[in-house]
Amino acid sequence: MKDSAGVRTVPVDAIAFLQDNVAWNRVSFCIQDGKILSCESRNDPAQFFVTPGFVNCHMHWLMLGEPTLEREIELMKNRPDEMIDIMVENARSTVLKGITACCDKGPPGLETHRIYQGLRTAKSCGLPVPKTLVSTWTISVDGAFASPLSRRVYSQNELEQVIRELHETGAGIMKIIPESGLRLAQFTYDWVFPEAYFAVAREMTARLGLILAIHAKGPESIGMGLKYSVDCIEHATEASVTQLKEMQGKGIYLSPTLEGLWCRLNYATSAGSGVATAAFEWGNATQMFRNAVVLNDGKPFTHFLFGSDAGSASTPHASLRELYLMRKLGLPAEDCLRAAMVNGARFMRLHGSIGQLTPGYCADMIFWRRNPLELDVADWEHLDQYIAAVMLDGNLIEP
Ligand SMILES: [Zn+2]
Question: Which domain holds residue 241?
Answer without folding.
Answer: 53-347
